[in-house]
Design goal:
Elements: H1 3-17, E1 40-42, E2 47-48, E3 53-55, E4 58-60, E5 65-66, E6 71-74, E7 79-83, E8 88-89, E9 94-97, E10 101-105, E11 110-111, E12 116-117, E13 121-122, E14 127-128, E15 133-134, E16 138-140, E17 145-146, E18 151-152, E19 178-180, E20 184-187, E21 192-195, H2 201-222
Family: Belongs to the dynactin subunits 5/6 family. Dynactin subunit 6 subfamily.
Keywords: Cytoplasm, Cytoskeleton
Subcellular location: Cytoplasm, Cytoskeleton
């Protein structure tokens, strides 16, 4: 897919949601300039542009599509990023994991241009709009939308759960995180969170499937694909 295709996709989604159109500069890629570093495993039917930068211990599930200039990095040699099935990761998305253990991302998640993801747990059927950010102190469940430019982070009055000294249940988690309920929408200048009704899920899923098929046809025509040995 060319950057023009990506821009058209963003404008199409914005026209449906009523959001302000986002200007995206076309990007040029050099097919051999970026390569995989570390251990990369890939499922079937994946489409990964050669100009995607994937580093560390990463698994990519069946059918996932990764655009040029996407950056996926697992820093810790004892960590791993596990990306589920049929996700779409657009240009300049940054998925970053620096802890031990797994960063788990579910199925059919859409990461739009410039989104930054640091959370170690993300469910399925979520949308992370352009330039949104998910911090490492939250958990995202299912059918959640983080709006353009918004930040998913704990509420100001949230206090992480603690365990009293000598409690038989043991020590608190190393990295306590705030969990957003499924069907959360984070929107506006203040990154306000609310719960949506879930109406229109089937229509959204059908549109997502059409978007995937379009990318499967267009990306191989426009870009060299990464060869996984």
């Amino acid at each position: 897919m060319s950057s023009q295709v990506g821009e058209q996709a963003v404008e199409r989604r914005n026209s449906v949601s009523g959001a302000r159109p986002t200007s995206i500069r076309p990007t040029t890629t050099t097919a051999s300039s970026i390569d995989s570093i570390g251990k990369l495993t890939v499922g079937s039917r994946c489409i990964i542009a050669d100009a995607a930068d994937i580093r560390g211990n990463v698994h990519i599930g069946d059918g996932t599509i990764i655009h040029p200039t996407a950056f996926i990095q697992c820093v810790n040699e004892n960590g791993k990023i596990v990306i589920g099935k049929d996700c779409i990761i657009e240009e300049r998305v940054h998925i970053f994991h620096q802890g031990e253990g797994e960063m788990k991302i579910g199925d059919k998640n859409l990461f739009e241009v410039g989104a930054r993801i640091e959370s170690s747990t993300i469910g399925s059927h979520n949308t992370f709009e352009c330039r949104s950010r998910v911090t490492d102190s939250v958990i995202i469940q299912d059918f959640t939308t983080v709006g353009a430019g918004c930040i998913a982070q704990p509420p100001p009055d949230w206090i992480p759960a603690t365990v009293d000294q000598g409690d038989e249940q043991g020590p608190p988690p190393k990295h306590p995180a705030y969990t957003f309920p499924s069907q959360t929408v984070i929107y506006g200048d203040q990154s306000t969170a609310r719960i949506w009704s879930g109406n229109g899920v089937r229509q959204a899923d059908a549109l997502y499937a059409k978007h995937q098929e379009h990318l499967r046809r267009s990306i191989p025509k426009e870009f060299k694909l990464k060869i996984i040995r």
